[in-house]
Alpha/beta hydrolase family protein (Blastococcus tunisiensis), 497 residues
Amino acid sequence: MVWLTQMFGNSLTRVWWTPSVTGIPGTVVRKPMSPRSLATAMTCALAIAFVSIPSAAAEEPSGPRHIEGTVDDGATAWVADVPADWNGTVLLYGHGYRPSFFPIPPTPENAPDDATRQALLDRGYALVGSSYERGGWTLDTAAEDQLQTLDAFRAAVGEPSRVLAVGTSMGGLVTGQLAEMPGAPIDGALPTCGLMHGGVDLLNYQLDGAHAIAQLLVPEGSDVRLADYGGDLAAVNAAASTLTDAVVAAQDDPAGRARIALAAALYHLPRWAEGQPAPDPRDYQAQVDAQIAQFTVALGFTYPARVDIETTVGGNPSWNAGVDYRALLQHADERAQVVALYRAAGLDLRADLARLTETASVTPDEDALRTAYATSELTGDLQVPVLSLHTTHDVLAPVQVEEEYAETVRHAGAGGLLRQAFVQRLGHCAFTPAELVASVEALDERVATGRWGSAAHPRKLDAAAEALGLGESEILPRYRPAEWLGDRGGLFGRPRF
């Protein structure tokens, strides 16, 4: 193994190169140098200047390269992989949400999983991604972190022929931000399982479901705070536990099950549970069983995440004061299920909806709301082609967000730049390498040709994925998500300042 020192951008980077001895291409790793190593390297460089070096040793390694570095004064780490037969396209990958309160180091990622990474490298794509500046809800800085990472890649590797932004979950929203930036060096975007509704709608729909549990299922006398935690993680965890316990306690009572179904409709929970076959569309009791299981997952993860968002934007940006819950349920895909279960339990659905409306009293912090809108809401004003990919039963990023995203893009007059594909599967970001690689190749073709053609048509996309030999594909030939319920702007209007 030998090491060389090269200048990449504004920083020196150490390069380790292991030449091939078995026919396998040599490997390269670049890492930022410490001040002590830098001094040593400069001394060595001066000495080497007077030594004759064989031309083969001075050439850039021709094998696949693995490169690591930092940007933003070391606050953001990045990682890249470049295949030996690079096709000129680089995928700028944005990873998902990592709670600031979990012991997860801020490591960079450049692909959603190892199998997809290898499949993309095998097809000639270079991959690069960052850690973002910090953990938590990073929509105020993540897009800029990604662009700085792309600059570092250019300096280290060279100018790509095309740049495709790809993102997962929260990284899908970051990718959506990049797609709307005028002049950004992005040629196309692939948000997958993206939080395309932004931070405000995210907290609003979760507030609606939690409000229903608190009013209809939590025992009277229990004090459950649903918003404005001031960074108090213990308080939000206590609220999540109280809400979850109330759901579990109500599961054996017909009235409780009907009210669970109402809360689940507002929370956009899938009516399908892990390890179980999808229930019959008319088997409402089996659907409630699935929703109970999904609540035990959703409340324990999504509700504590509220602390990160509130901390980032400086307060609570969500509200339900003024929401008409009877009108809201009229738009829900699960309305028939809720009505049937209420009728079977002998409950008055109108009375419960009236109670929810009358007791809805959460109001936003105006400055926090402005900040949340400014840093995490998409305008739909696309600057580049976008292909979005979503599973049909996603417990953390409901598929209905894609209905809201498409509507936003149409209202901005950019509908011709957007295509959407949907995978018939349960789970958050539960895509196969085949589905992801086929989507990348369809977007790459759109950018290369300047027109969509049939590349992103769901039926052709599914066939292309199946032909890759990378696993199954369940991309639906035709699918339209139900209406998104968290859109206060569309249904009830935003609060006036």
Remarks:
- The chain has a mean pLDDT of 88.
- The CA atoms of residues 232 and 307 lie 7 Å apart.
- The longest helix spans residues 284-313.
